[in-house]
Amino acid sequence: VIYSLFHWDDGRWEFTDGDLPSREVIVLRMSTGDLLMEGIRRVQRWSRIRAGVGHLQQRYVLSPQSPGLLSGISLLKHELELVAHLDGVMTLDEVCRLGRLSDFEICRTVWALWAAGVLDRVPEDAGEGASEQDEEEDTAPHAERVAGASVGREIERFNQLHRFLFELVSYQLRERASHFFERAFSQACAEQEALFQGVAVDPSGELDAIALHRNVITQEIASYLRGLDRLLEIESALVLEIMGERKAAIIHDGLIALKERQLEGGAPSY
Prior knowledge:
Layout: H1 2-5, H2 32-41, H3 46-53, E1 59-62, H4 66-70, H5 77-85, E2 90-91, H6 92-96, H7 103-115, E3 119-122, H8 132-139, E4 145-146, E5 149-150, H9 151-173, H10 177-191, H11 193-196, H12 209-217, H13 221-243, H14 245-265
Antiparallel strand pairs: 1-2, 1-3, 4-5
């Protein structure tokens, strides 16, 4: 029951002061830290993990309470290794470069360790009198500018489009959907190997935004964004081949309409 709460996007709660009820009390012989760690380990949606862990430049440090908290938490091997390699204040990007695991796994672990109190977030320094937008423009690397938007925004737009296609194809093909997307990704990786290297896909069809972001900004941005469009083209062609003209036309029209709304409204809506 408790673990199911970690899949909620939002919720409401109320605290009632007073004595515990005398009936139907269930005692869990688990630490709060273990409950938090295991609950977050079960989260598979990249968008939830990204929202929980923050952006690439978010800084983390071991909390003063971490020694005592760690003694009461059962960590997996890769989680222990991550804690052991933390050295002072580090950005999320630097933490992701530490381990051999995917950015998806590392970010989920960082989120869980922060929720359990093992890690603290270091507040960002803000200049006096500067607006949030001005600060973002001053600190955003020039390489992240693509047609007036950051690479991160472009990846968000792509993931919205890809989730739309992923959901419809998965619904239509059922158990054959995994083979469909394996075929599509195999072809896209063959054409744009550097772009998709180390990029995981979550069960909703969303690509690992941090791994994509790193791959894009370390190469020629425009060519790799074309690679993202190419993946949609490949999948659209497979839709036509496997599912027929009618289904392909529906998905095509839906993608066009979604792109138009993105252009009109700026940030994607979910």
